[in-house]
Design brief:
With 155 residues, the chain is of the alpha+beta class. Helices cover 34% and strands 36% of the residues. It starts with 6 loop residues before the first strand and ends with a helix.
Length: 155
């Protein structure tokens, strides 16, 4: 039996969960250069303000920040360069239709190692209104208060 591939989370986009309703999730590969992978192994990546676009049957991830690798020479990578996403043609077609017709956006939710490969979890999202954010904050606070009360009851 094959051993299940282990995942190690590099970065998560917590802002995406606050700003958007996540409708669907898709796992995608990403094309990186060697210094980017080494920098990600050190945990130096960020997904804040990153987004995916589609053009000519290909998917690209923009604004993802990967710190330059410390021990690299002058051939180090650019920090915020566009990176190609590896998706099937059918997946790209489906996402393109959703983005154009239904008003969705595609943002990365997390970046992680799956075995030795770097993967990105993409979310098909729709923006939240201000009152949705307030409602979520209120729910979060009430759950926190409830767990605090339950903890004191057990003691």
């Amino acid at each position: 039996m094959a051993e299940p591939s282990k995942t190690k989370v590099i970065a998560t986009n917590r802002k995406a969960w606050h700003d958007y309703h996540v409708e669907d999730r898709i796992e995608a590969g990403i094309v990186l250069v060697g210094t980017e992978v080494k920098s990600l192994r050190a945990g130096k990546g960020s997904l804040v303000d990153a987004y995916a676009t589609f053009s000519a049957g290909e998917a690209f991830l923009y604004n993802m920040f990967i710190n330059p690798y410390d021990k690299a020479n002058r051939n180090n990578h650019e920090e915020r360069r566009p990176r190609k996403l590896l998706l099937h043609k059918q997946q790209i077609g489906k996402l393109t239709v959703q983005v154009r017709q239904k008003g969705f956006t595609v943002v990365p939710l997390s970046l992680y190692f799956k075995g030795s490969q770097v993967k990105v979890e993409l979310g098909v999202v729709r923006g939240k209104k201000e009152y949705d954010k307030r409602h979520d904050l209120k729910d979060k606070e009430s759950k926190r208060e409830l767990s605090r009360v339950m903890k004191h009851r057990r003691d």
